[in-house]
Every structure is written in structure tokens, then in C-alpha cells.
């Protein structure tokens, strides 16, 4: 990620861990649902009462805002300007709030503070965004003069206090808790084409620019730092008085960076870990620096074991603490798994199974020995996961890195740091890590290294009893001790030494995917009904919750949208013939009626176009027209080219509206969008493509394939072959980047520059490109693409980026060819969904959403999309969002019926 901009699939990714602390089943926002203590609020309220001020404290998200009840011209804040921030730690936050609030109220300055101490700790945690970290109190001066005067007064009372360094700000003088930056005061947001609310600043000449929360101090071009530093110099890319020369950054987090550097005294490459003080606050007074010092002690303690990097030195440079350690010539354990696991191949052999077993055994015998030796030193690892295990390329033995969570319970404060999915989450367990957690983690990592599905333990309790046997059988290891070892490690009924002895037992291997041949527990029709029952059992009517639980991206974009909102779920239920309960229908209708065009992007996946198309499909022409008008009048109408967010998707929705209403207004709108796309296209020897912000995307959701589908459908409606020809040029551009990942199997990356990760999905990857190529009739090209979706294993189960999408593509292939081999192929991903993801919950069935920690009901990534696809598979119906009604029934006419059956081994 440090080497390129994120893909648009990555851009919609949200750290789901922040959404797992409220509900055991669903992703819910901590900011919305957490109930903070009143300790800090009570402190400030007492000051207001003492002064008799007509001010109040209003909570919003993670903040408590202190401001006058009645706004007057004198109290009106500017839209933007210089803001003052105060950082703190757990020990001094109450004292700092008292001092700062007293000063602010004495001067009539409005401010906000973190809701409580837990919120402060969250906002200084490792996973918190670096650009927003550390801001315990924010003060809002009304003028530049007031800003200058007040910050000097604040300095006088805070100059000896400390807090975390606020990366987005400049420090005021030498005060280690007082900072400032220029930014929005009264928040002004603009929608982007995805539907995200982007904070905006306005220049003196009226130009709007994004108010980026960068992890470094920056000012807009029309102003300057009011307190320029005379001694400011360019950053020196060395540490420890020049001893370590930084080569590159390996990673960044809120706690600090990790760097590859050269030790100039020896010429050796080293890894340098940085820790910033007063961040990642622990329950016993720890912070990132004390944890890195703890890692120094642990590395020294286990140095004689030869299982971790050699400690070079530790040092302070400026205010931060650093640890330099040996740079290991070793691979990330996850990379070894991805490169070798037979479950991630389409056509694995017995030899693949045996080879991976040898690798797997070597790695885990080594890991078991390492943890046994560490435990022999009285040390608990605590945070043990694939992310802190490297594999030596020469002998496939492990090296353990990142020991900051390790501790000796007899002498150290207990730690509660762990990676989700690799610690037993049994109810009633104590918070602190113990020796049993390390043993459980080894079992979980052994299973994860076969296929990364252990996070599902958060929503189901049969990870090692139902899912593990499936993995073992499919990988060809039924006649090996692996299943027994993993289960006993997870149950903590076996020692490391005993596990090693078991792994030395004889093993024989089978052809992957052949040892376990069972019928799906639920037919597609039954699965669709069971998923619908779960959805209709879990609607919510209170204002704190969305109507249906969905992926958190919906909360950041549009809770009514097709992809991640209520409309997608309601239309999927309608398509499946399911009745929405009356209370849910009433809330949905009420929210639809209240929807404001200015708050919704125009696009297909998250915006008005997708909502409109859904309503047309449900027979509600009035609402379809209303939302189509919203899309066509949006200032973001031409902001992006793509099917999911831009002109191609809005154009498709206009064509759907035209076919539904016969109103030429929609056809004209579609033609206008097509002309805009044609005029902005870039043509080269590969075909036609589009760029956004200098980036080229490949695929259905964001690349040329989605535009090609729109051009094809427009050509059919207009009976104008020119648009089909342009569309095929666009499709050819994406097809030209096909890569042979396995012999005879073509796959695709998300961009021309991406050379390491190839994807198989509808959103981006083979699946989506294949959907369009099917409709163009490019069967000769497709025969090497279909095997890439002939997979049982995928990291997520959903429609646009998971196993369900593979079923969708292969069903398309059948409907457009009449060849039953594609239905036979679809059984593999269907079996994967059944074996890996579907589970009984209440009266229905459910499946985890993306990242697997919780259930989502949305159309794009959750249960609704799965339900719809099961129903589609059971009834052999066309794709409702591809305008397939424009095609003659291909199964009756297409020559693909006569293709030879594909080998499915």
C-alpha cells in the first residue's frame, strides 16, 4: 500500500474492528452506540453551573461540544480558521480539561473534548487514523487575533504538561500538549462520487479545496503559519546522530513507523521500529514507548533461542523511542500460504497437497518449538498471529517478530493486546493474555495457513468442529494428524511437545477436493428462503440503528443505497418473493420519503441511480422517476466514468427507466452520458480506457468493462452498432491485461500497475470482466476465464467480492450458452458457501460479511446478495441489473451449446 494508491475496492474498506465492540452479531458504530461515562462531562458542567452560563454540553459522535445555548452575532463561529488542540494522557486528562475549560469559559471560547477517558484512549490507539489522533480538546477562536492571544494564555498554564504529538498540527513553542492547525470550524462537507462526506475549505476567491487530515502539518495556499519556526530544516533521513540511514518506510501506524535502514557502522540492513509517547495507552499506564522498551527486554531474554531478530540497539531520537533489530531474509507467513495452499488453486494435484504439507509441517514444528522455548523462559507471547511470523526461505522455519505484547506474568504488568481471530473469545474469559492463548493461537494459525477463515469464530462456535474437517478433507490431508493437532491445540488439551510428536506420525495424501463428496445441506431455493427469514427477523425500528444491519461503508455513504443500504435489501426480498414486515416497510417508506437529493450521490452502487433502478424493478414507478431525477440533476453526474459510481451506471439506470416508462427523457440522458464518456476516453493500442485522478482501473465496477456493458445496451436500444464497437474497444482494454496465474487460467489485477495481486471477483477481477464478455459473446476468450471463478474457496462469501459472485457469473454463462457444464461448475462455489459460510441462526440462516467478524445483510457484501443469487440460481433468472431483457434468449440460439464439456477436476 505504500507503493501505490488504493484501488476503489480498497477505498471502500473500513477497519471493521472499530465496529465490533457494540454488538455480537452485527457491525455497529462505536461513535453512535457507545455510552460514555459522565466523569468529564460532570467536571465541565460544574464549571458552567458555577458561572451561571447559558451554555450546554452536547454530545456528537466521540465529542462533547461546549457552546452557548443561544447563538448571537457575538458567539457565531467562523466557518474556518485557526484551531487550537490540546493532547493529554490518561493520567493528566482531567487536570488538563479543568485548566483549559476554565480558561476557555473565562474568555467565552467554545470548545469540545473527548467524551470520556476510554474515548481518549481509543483516539490515541494504534488503529486510529494518524491525521486525527491525539486531539483531546479542540478550541475555536473567532478571529486570528483571538487565536494568537488565547494560545499564548494556554501556553502559560500548559507549558509543563505533556500529551501525544498531534501529527496533523504544529506544536506551539515548546509545550508538549499544545498544538494548532488551520481547518474547518463549522464543518462544511461536500459529497464525493462514492457518497462520502468530504470536509471542505473555501479560498478567498471562492475555490473549494479538500480539508485533508494529513499526518503532517499543512496549510492552505492562501495563508501561512502564524508562528514560523526560524530553525526549521528539511527532515534528516538519519537517526541516532547519523548512525542509521533510512532507506524506506515499511509501514505506518498511529504508534509510529517501521523503517528499513542501513547501520552505517556495519553496513548491515536493519529494521527500525518507532514508538511515539502517549499513544496506545494501556490499562496499567503503558504506552507505545514502554511497550517497545518491553520488546527490547523480551528480545534480550529470548536472544539465545535464535527464534527472533537479533537486537541491535535502542535509542531516543528527539522525543520518540526507537528499536533497531536485525533485518531477516525471510518471507511473510501469509505470502507462503498464498503461494502454496492447494485450496487457493483451481486444479490442485496430489503433489501440491503433499508439498504444502511438508511446508506446513516444517513451519509449525518450528513454531511449536519456538513457543515451547519462549514459555520455558516464563514468557507469554500474547499477540501471536500470522502477521508476526516470518518464514526462513532456506529451511521453512519460523522467526517471530513484534514482541511488544510479550510479558512475564511473574514480574510484568499483564497485557491485553491481540489480533482478532487468534485469541479464544469464550465468554467470561479474563482480559489479560495467558499461556493458553498462545497455544490456541498456534492452532488458529495452523488452520489459517490452510485458508484464512478463523475470524468467523466471532459469529459461530463450530470453527474447529465443522469447518476444520472440511478444510482438511478438501486439501487432501484426511490421512494426516493435522486435524487432530489443531483441534487439541484450540481446546488446550495438548502441549507443544505433544503436538510435535503427533505431527511426526505417518501421513498420506489424496487428490484435493475428492475426499469429501456431499450434497449441499440446503438447496438453492431453501437457502434463499432461510436467508430471507434471517433478514426479516432482524429489522430495527429505533433511530440509533439502520433499518437492517449492513457493512459500515453504508454508514459512510448512503444507508438507503442499493449496495450497502436498505433499498438493496428490500429489492432483493421483493425479487425473491418475500414480504417485508409491515413495521419495516413503514420505516423504509418514511426514510425514502425523507431522502434529500443533496445528501445522496448519483451513482449505481451507493446512490440515486441504484435506488431508482430498484424501484422500477419493484414496480414503483413514482419513486423510480423521483430518484432518477435526483441522479440526472446531481452536480456529480459526470464526476466518474464507472459502472458502480459514475456515468456508466447512471446511464444503465436511465436505460432501465426508459424501458420501464418509454419516456425518451431517460434515453436522451443515457445518450448524453455516453457521449461524455466517448469524448473523455483515451485510446491506445490496447483499446479505450478512462482515468480518474491519474489512475486507470481495470474491471467491471470501476474499469472499462462496466462502461462496455453500458455501451452495448445503448447500442441495442438505439440499434446503433457504433456504440457496441466502442464498447468492445473498452472491453478489449481490460482483456488485454489478462494474466495466466495457473496453466490455462486467465485472471486480472485491479490496475495495469498491479503485478502482485490478481483477483477473481465481480467488483474487480475476472468475474466482472467475464460477465461483460459473456454478453458480447466472446466465448473463445471466456474459456480460460471461467476456470478462475470455478473456486470453492474465497475470503468472503458476498456477491460483488466473494463466492456468491462466482455463482452469479457461472449462471450467466449457462443462461447465455445453454451449456449445463456451467451449472455443474457453479456447484463448487455453492458448496463453498454451504461448507464455509452458511450457518443456522435462530429460525433462519446467516453468513458473515466482509472481514468475517460480524454478519451483514446488505446486497453487495452480505446476506441479501447471497439470497438473491440463490433464488436466481434456483429459478434460472437473468441478472436484474444488466438489462438482460434486451437479449434474445441465448440458450436457444447460441453455438456455445455445442462446446465440449469442460473438465471439472
UniProtKB/TrEMBL annotation:
Keywords: Transferase. InterPro entries: 6hp_glycosidase-like_sf, Aerial_hyphae_peptide-synth, Kinase-like_dom_sf, LANC-like, Prot_kinase_dom, RamC_C, RamC_N. Residues 244-514 form the Protein kinase domain. GO terms for molecular function: ATP binding; protein kinase activity. Pfam families: LANC_like, Pkinase, RamC_N. It comes from the Bacteria. GO terms for biological process: carbohydrate metabolic process; peptide modification. NCBIfam families: lanthi_synth_III (NF038151). This is tRNA A-37 threonylcarbamoyl transferase component Bud32. It comes from Oleiagrimonas soli. The lineage of its organism: Bacteria, Pseudomonadati, Pseudomonadota, Gammaproteobacteria, Lysobacterales.
Amino acid at each position: 500500500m505504500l507503493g501505490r494508491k488504493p484501488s476503489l475496492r480498497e477505498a471502500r474498506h473500513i477497519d471493521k474492528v472499530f465496529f465490533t465492540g457494540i454488538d455480537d452479531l452485527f457491525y455497529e458504530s462505536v461513535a453512535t452506540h457507545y455510552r460514555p461515562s459522565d466523569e468529564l462531562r460532570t467536571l465541565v458542567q460544574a464549571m458552567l453551573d458555577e458561572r451561571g452560563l447559558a451554555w450546554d454540553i452536547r454530545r456528537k459522535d466521540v465529542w462533547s461540544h461546549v457552546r452557548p445555548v443561544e447563538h448571537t452575532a457575538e458567539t457565531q463561529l467562523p466557518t474556518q480558521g485557526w484551531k487550537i488542540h490540546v493532547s493529554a494522557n490518561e493520567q493528566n486528562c482531567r487536570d488538563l480539561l479543568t485548566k483549559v475549560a476554565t480558561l476557555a469559559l473565562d474568555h467565552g471560547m467554545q470548545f469540545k473534548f473527548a467524551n470520556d477517558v476510554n474515548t481518549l484512549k481509543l483516539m490515541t490507539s494504534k488503529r486510529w487514523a494518524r491525521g486525527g489522533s491525539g486531539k483531546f480538546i479542540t478550541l475555536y477562536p473567532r478571529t486570528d487575533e483571538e487565536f494568537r492571544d488565547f494560545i499564548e494564555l494556554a501556553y502559560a498554564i500548559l507549558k509543563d504538561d505533556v500529551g501525544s504529538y498531534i501529527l496533523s498540527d504544529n506544536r506551539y513553542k515548546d509545550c508538549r500538549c499544545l498544538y494548532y492547525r488551520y481547518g474547518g470550524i463549522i464543518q462544511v462537507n461536500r459529497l464525493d462520487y462514492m457518497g462520502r462526506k468530504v470536509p471542505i475549505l473555501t479560498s478567498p476567491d471562492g475555490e473549494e479545496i479538500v480539508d485533508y487530515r494529513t499526518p503532517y502539518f499543512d496549510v492552505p495556499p492562501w495563508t501561512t503559519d502564524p508562528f514560523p519556526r526560524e530553525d526549521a530544516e528539511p527532515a534528516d533521513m538519519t537517526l541516532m546522530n547519523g548512525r542509521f540511514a533510512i532507506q524506506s518506510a515499511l509501514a505506518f501506524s498511529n504508534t509510529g513507523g517501521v523503517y528499513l535502514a542501513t547501520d552505517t557502522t556495519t553496513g548491515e540492513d536493519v529494521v527500525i521500529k518507532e514508538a511515539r509517547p502517549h499513544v496506545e495507552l494501556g490499562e496499567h499506564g503503558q504506552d507505545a514507548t514502554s511497550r517497545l522498551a518491553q520488546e527490547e527486554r523480551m528480545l534480550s531474554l529470548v536472544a539465545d533461542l535464535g527464534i527472533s531478530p537479533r537486537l541491535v540497539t535502542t535509542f531516543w531520537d528527539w522525543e520518540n523511542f526507537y528499536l533497531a533489530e536485525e533485518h531477516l531474509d525471510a518471507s511473510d507467513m501469509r505470502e507462503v500460504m498464498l503461494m502454496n495452499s492447494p485450496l487457493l488453486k483451481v486444479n490442485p494435484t496430489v503433489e501440491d497437497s503433499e508439498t504444502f504439507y511438508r511446508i506446513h509441517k516444517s513451519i509449525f514444528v518450528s513454531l511449536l518449538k519456538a513457543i515451547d522455548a519462549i514459555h520455558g523462559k516464563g514468557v507469554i507471547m500474547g499477540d501471536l498471529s500470522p502477521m508476526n511470523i516470518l518464514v526462513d526461505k532456506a529451511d521453512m522455519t519460523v522467526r517471530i517478530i513484534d514482541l511488544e505484547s510479550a510479558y512475564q506474568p511473574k514480574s510484568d504488568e499483564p497485557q491485553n493486546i491481540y489480533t482478532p481471530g487468534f485469541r479464544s473469545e469464550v465468554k467470561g474469559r479474563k482480559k489479560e493474555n495467558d499461556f493458553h492463548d498462545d497455544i490456541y493461537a498456534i492452532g488458529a494459525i495452523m488452520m489459517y495457513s490452510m485458508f484464512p477463515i478463523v475470524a468467523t469464530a466471532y459469529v459461530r462456535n463450530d470453527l474447529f468442529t465443522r469447518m476444520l474437517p472440511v478444510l482438511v478433507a478438501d486439501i487432501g490431508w484426511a490421512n494426516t494428524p493435522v486435524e487432530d493437532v489443531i483441534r487439541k491445540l484450540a481446546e488446550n488439551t495438548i502441549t507443544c511437545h505433544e503436538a510435535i510428536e503427533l505431527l511426526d506420525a505417518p501421513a498420506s495424501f489424496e487428490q484435493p477436493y475428492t475426499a469429501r463428496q456431499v450434497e449441499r445441506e440446503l438447496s438453492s431455493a431453501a437457502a434463499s428462503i432461510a436467508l430471507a427469514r434471517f433478514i426479516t427477523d432482524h429489522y430495527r425500528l429505533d433511530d440509533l440503528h439502520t433499518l437492517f444491519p449492513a457493512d459500515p461503508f453504508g454508514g459512510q455513504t448512503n444507508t438507503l443505497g442499493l449496495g450497502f443500504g436498505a433499498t438493496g435489501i428490500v429489492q432483493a426480498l421483493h425479487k425473491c418473493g418475500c414480504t417485508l414486515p409491515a413495521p419495516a416497510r413503514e420505516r423504509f417508506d418514511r426514510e425514502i420519503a425523507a431522502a434529500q437529493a443533496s445528501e445522496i450521490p448519483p451513482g449505481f452502487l451507493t446512490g440515486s441511480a441504484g435506488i431508482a433502478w430498484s424501484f422500477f424493478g419493484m414496480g414503483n414507478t413514482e419513486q423510480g422517476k423521483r430518484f432518477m431525477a435526483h441522479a440526472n440533476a446531481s452536480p456529480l453526474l459526470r464526476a466518474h466514468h464507472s459502472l458502480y459510481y459514475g456515468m456508466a451506471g447512471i446511464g444503465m439506470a436511465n436505460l432501465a427507466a426508459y424501458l420501464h416508462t418509454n419516456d425518451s427523457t431517460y434515453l436522451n440522458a443515457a445518450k448524453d452520458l455516453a457521449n461524455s464518456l466517448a469524448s473523455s476516453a483515451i485510446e491506445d493500442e490496447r483499446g479505450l480506457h478512462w482515468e480518474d485522478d491519474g489512475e486507470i482501473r481495470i474491471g467491471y465496477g470501476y474499469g472499462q468493462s462496466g462502461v462496455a456493458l453500458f455501451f452495448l445496451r445503448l447500442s441495442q436500444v438505439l440499434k446503433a452498432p457504433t456504440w457496441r464497437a466502442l464498447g468492445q474497444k473498452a472491453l478489449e482494454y481490460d482483456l488485454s491485461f489478462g494474466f495466466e496465474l495457473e496453466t490455462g487460467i486467465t485472471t486480472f489485477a485491479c490496475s495495469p500497475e498491479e503485478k502482485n495481486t490478481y483477483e477473481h471477483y465481480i467488483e474487480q477481477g475476472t468475474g466482472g470482466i467475464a460477465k461483460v464478455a459473456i454478453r458480447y459473446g466472446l466465448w473463445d476468450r471466456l474459456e480460460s476465464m471461467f476456470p478462475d471463478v470455478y473456486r470453492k474457496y474465497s475470503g468472503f462469501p458476498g456477491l460483488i467480492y466473494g463466492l456468491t459472485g462466482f455463482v452469479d457469473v457461472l449462471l450467466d454463462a449457462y443462461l447465455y450458452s445453454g451449456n449445463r457444464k456451467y451449472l455443474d461448475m457453479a456447484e463448487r462455489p455453492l458448496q463453498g458457501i454451504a461448507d464455509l459460510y452458511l450457518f443456522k441462526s435462530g429460525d433462519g440462516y446467516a453468513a458473515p460479511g466482509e472481514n468475517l467478524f460480524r454478519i451483514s445483510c446488505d446486497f453487495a457484501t452480505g446476506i441479501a446478495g447471497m439470497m438473491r443469487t440463490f433464488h436466481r440460481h434456483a429459478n434460472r433468472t437473468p441478472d436484474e441489473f444488466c438489462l438482460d431483457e434486451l437479449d434474445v434468449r441465448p440458450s436457444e440460439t447460441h453455438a456455445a451449446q455445442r462446446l465440449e464439456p469442460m473438465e471439472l477436476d
